[in-house]
Amino acid sequence: MRNALILYRNPARFARVLNQFFKKFSAARPHLTAEAGPRYNFGENSAGEGCAVIHNIVFDMGQVLIHFDWERFVGRLGLPPEDRRLLTNELFQSLEWPQLDRGVITYRQAHEAVCKRLPARLHGAAWELLTGWYEPILPMEGMAELVGQLKAAGYGIYLLSNTTCRFPEYWPQVPGHEHFDGLLLSFEYGLLKPERAIYLSLFDRFRLRPEECFFVDDQPSNIEEAFRCGMPGAVFHGDAEDLRVNLRRAGVRI
Predict the structure, then answer these.
(1) 254: in domain
(2) For strand 213-217 and strand 233-235, is the pairing parallel, antiparallel, or unpaired?
(3) Domain final residue pick, 84, 103, 132
(4) Less Cβ crowding at N or C end of the chain, within 10 Å?
């Protein structure tokens, strides 16, 4: 476990380990690798260490570009503690929430299902939260500036987000949105992070090489699957300056 954590926090070391693995695999199984198709092509950073050269930064949205805080959303309504607990459990932590992100149910269907588990007095509040949690958008401190600097430095900027069909209503309010070169949204594909297929869809849609991307997400499981797909990254803990350090460790000029 300790070695795995070291690799996650050091993309250059991760790349070297991949290089060693592929060399050993190719030598042991030439009959398999000869027809294996495209291979990872790791370059060298300015320190001479074997690693992929990063050309693209892929961001999550909630808890990375903007705050996504259930307690804060529910707290805006001024309800008593028990009602806040019910709304948090039966709405934000419900089965219907990821189903909306996957695009397999409508907002009306989600509301009807949630209301069956809530007292009638909370039905209106559930709809208000379901359809308006993003009013107003709460930017993550320092992230819009960082995204703008990365864009100005010549990096491709992409979004990979579990989100719903209401995304177009609030995306223009997210500071830094104008710098993004491409968006891959879960509801459009019927996929969710950390499913492998959503990462492969990102690479395919925008013709990206995974080893040339750096992924930023607040969920360790999402970063772990990105690594399994060949894309290095870092778990975001709410601090843009810490992220800046992690990007520099990966050879990003920022």
Answers:
(1) no
(2) parallel
(3) 132
(4) N
Spatial distance between the Cα atoms of 213 and 25, rounded to a whole number of angstroms: 24
Average pLDDT over residues 196-211: 98
CA distances for 186 relative to 4, 24, 28, 149, 222, angstroms = 28, 36, 39, 27, 13
Q: Is residue 216 part of a domain?
A: yes
Q: Do 105 and 144 have their domain in common? A: no
- Looking at residue 197, which CATH number applies to its domain? 3.40.50.1000
Q: How confident is the model at residue 249 (pLDDT cuts 50, 70, 90)?
A: very high
Burial of 28 from C-beta contacts in 10 A (0-12 / 13-18 / 19+):
exposed
Domain of residue 185, residue span: 2-65+138-249
pTM of the model: 0.81
Ramachandran region of residue 136, left (φ > 0), alpha (ψ -120 to 50) or beta? Answer: beta
Q: Are residues 145 and 237 both part of a single domain? A: yes
What's the sign of the alpha-carbon dihedral 225, 227, 228, 230?
Answer: positive
Give SS3 for 186.
helix
Give the count of beta carbons closer than 10 Å to the beta carbon of residue 177. 17
Give the residue among 220, 217, 214 at the shortest CA–CA distance from 252.
214
| Per-residue model confidence as pLDDT tens digits over 113-170 | 999 999 999 999 999 999 999 999 999 999 999 999 999 999 999 999 999 999 999 9
